[in-house]
Amino acid sequence: MTKEDALEARLREVEARLRALEDTEEIKKLTRIYGYYLDKALWDDVLALFTDDCEIEISFLGVYRGKAQAEKLFKRILGEGPAKSGPAGLEYGRLFNHMIQQGVVHVAPDGRNASGRWRCFLQTGEFGKSAWWGEGPYEIRYRKDGDLQRWKMSSLHYYRTFHVPFEEGWAKSRSLKSSGINRDFPPDLPPTEDYEPHPGVYVPPFHYKNPISGR
Predict the structure, then answer these.
(1) What is the 3-state secondary structure (H, E, C) of the chain?
(2) Span 6-23, mean pLDDT?
(3) Which residues contact 102 (CB under 8 A, 6 or more apart)?
(4) What are the Cα distances from residue 70, in Å, to 9, 73, 133, 187?
(5) How many CB atoms lie within 10 A of CB 77?
(6) Are 104 and 116 in contact (CB under 8 A)?
(7) Which CATH number fits domain 3-172: 1.25.40.10, 3.30.930.10, 3.10.20.30, 3.10.450.50?
(8) What's this model's pTM, rounded to 2 decimal places?
(9) Is pLDDT larger for residue 186 or for residue 11?
(10) Domain residue extents for the chain
(11) CA-to-CA distance for 95 and 92, rounded, in angstroms?
C-alpha cells in the first residue's frame, strides 16, 4: 500500500468515526426531545418522531404497530388516562413528567440503524387527587428514515421497574404491572415479556455486550 492509499484509508476511517459521533449526538437529542414532548402530552409532536412502521410497547399494555395504532396508544389510552389532555396538550392540574437520562447509544456499522438504552424517572398525578412515582429503562431502536434520512424511532419498549403512590413510595407499596391490555383500543400483540415489577427484580435484555468481558 502506498502512502497515498494509506492516507486515504485513514481519512475514510476518520470520516466514518465522525459520522458515527454525529449520528449518536442526533439520536440523543431526538430521545430527549421525545421526553419533553411526552411531558406535556404533545402527541402530534411525539408521533412525528416515529417511523411509519414503528412498534411501541409500554409496560404491560402490549405491542402497538404502525402510526395509526401508535396514535391510539398515545391519544386514546394515555391521553384519556394518566396524561389526560386536549388539543393544546396536558390538561390543567395534570402532571406527566418523564425525565429521560443515562443514554447508551450504539450506531450500527451500516450507519442507518442504531440502538439505545435509557432510564426514565417519572412523576405523574392530578392536583388535589393523586401523585405517583415511577421508574424504568427504555430499549429503543432507531432508523434513518424518509427522503431527508433523518433519525427516527422505529421500536420503543418501556419496562416498568416501579410505579407507586407518592405517599407510600417504593418502600411500602408493591408495584402493580398496570391495568393491562386495553379492550377498547387493543394492541396488535400481547406483551412480549412477563415479569414482576418492584419488589421483584428484573433485568431487561441489553442490546449491547459488556465492553470489558464481552458477555
Answers:
(1) CCHHHHHHHHHHHHHHHHHHHHHHHHHHHHHHHHHHHHHCCCHHHHHCCEEEEEEEEECCCCEEEHHHHHHHHHHHHHCCCCCCEECCEECCCEEEEEEEEEEEEEECCCCCEEEEEEEEEEEEEECCCEEEEEEEEEEEEEEEECCCCEEEEEEEEECCCEEEECCCHHHHCCCCCCCCCCCCCCCCECCCCCCCCCCCCCCCCCCCCCCCCCC
(2) 83
(3) 117, 118, 119
(4) 44, 5, 24, 9
(5) 19
(6) yes
(7) 3.10.450.50
(8) 0.93
(9) 186
(10) 3-172
(11) 9
CB 61 within 8 A of CB 176: no
* pLDDT, tens only, 164-188: 999 999 999 999 877 678 999 999 9
Mean pLDDT, range 12-32, rounded to an integer: 92
Provide the 10 A C-beta neighbour count for residue 150: 12
What is the distance between the alpha carbons of residues 201 and 60, in angstroms, rounded to a whole number?
A: 16
Question: Distance between CA atoms of 200 and 130, rounded to whole angstroms?
Answer: 24
Whether 5 shows a pLDDT value over 70: the answer reads no
pLDDT of residue 13: 82
Per the rule left: phi > 0, alpha: psi between -120 and 50, beta: everything else, 159 is: beta
Give me the pLDDT at residue 72, please. 97
Q: How far apart are CA 158 and CA 204, in angstroms?
A: 10
